[in-house]
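Students often ask why inverse folding is considered easier than folding. One informal answer: many sequences map to the same fold, so there is more than one right answer. In these notes we will look at a single instance of the problem. The structure comes first.
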């Protein structure tokens, strides 16, 4: 009986400690007086993510709810506090002007086992800085101005392809988007016109 009581007290103590740690983690923004979305126990503001909801839908919902109220808000990725920036000038400060101070993305990336995660949005630290130095010149205003006619041409072809496909009342969106991406990448990166939008069987 005494052993059972000890086990019960130990379990209650552990549960109480875990509860207070979670509550303390989820009151990070409240303690600092920063506008934030009220979190749910354990899941924070990401309830349903990975199941029925995508994280982009959650962030868009938060953006729509708080835009114009503050330059940024606090929210929680499970127990981890994070910031959602709402102001365009602040976004520019973080991503461009003072990017050297914001190298941590807080997103999973494993270049060794998942090479597609080795992108600018998912890399951290020195890996991000190196990739940023390589990629940034490609998005200079002059380069984007030169890309625009190609993108408009691909969009026009996509519109034609969509019009032809829509006559059957069934539009295979995945195929359409894949063909559009292939056409844009092949034209911009390799200067090869794949024309997959009009002929999905092309090599």
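Output (designed amino acids):
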């Amino acid at each position: 009986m005494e052993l059972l009581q000890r086990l019960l007290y130990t379990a209650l103590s552990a549960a109480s400690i875990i509860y207070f740690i979670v509550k303390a983690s989820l009151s990070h923004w409240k303690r600092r007086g920063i506008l934030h979305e009220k979190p749910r126990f354990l899941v924070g503001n990401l309830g349903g993510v990975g199941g029925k909801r995508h994280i982009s839908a959650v962030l868009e919902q938060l953006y729509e709810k708080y835009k114009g109220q503050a330059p940024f808000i606090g929210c929680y990725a499970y127990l981890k506090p994070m910031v959602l920036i709402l102001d365009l000038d602040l976004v520019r400060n973080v991503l461009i002007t003072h990017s050297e101070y914001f190298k941590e993305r807080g997103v999973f990336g494993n270049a060794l086992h998942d090479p597609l995660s080795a992108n600018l949005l998912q890399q951290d630290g020195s890996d991000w800085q190196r990739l940023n130095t390589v990629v940034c010149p490609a998005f200079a205003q002059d380069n984007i101005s030169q890309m625009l006619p190609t993108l408009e041409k691909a969009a026009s072809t996509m519109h034609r392809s969509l019009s032809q496909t829509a006559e059957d009342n069934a539009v295979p969106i995945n195929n359409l988007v894949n063909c559009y991406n292939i056409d844009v990448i092949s034209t911009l990166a390799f200067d090869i016109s794949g024309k997959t939008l009009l002929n999905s069987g092309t090599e």
